Amino acid sequence: MSIFRRKRPQTVETETAPVNTPVKLAVVYYSSTGTIAAIAQELSTVAEKAGAEVRLLKVAELAPQAAIDSNPAWAANATATADIPVATPDDIEWADAVIFGSPTRFGNITSQLKQFIDTLGGLWAEGKLADKVYSGFTSSATTHGGQESTLLALYNSVHHFGGIVVAPGYTDAAKFADGNPYGTSHVDAQGNNPVDDTTRAAARVQAERVVKIASALKAGLDAV
Question: Is the pTM of this model over 0.70?
Answer without folding.
Answer: yes
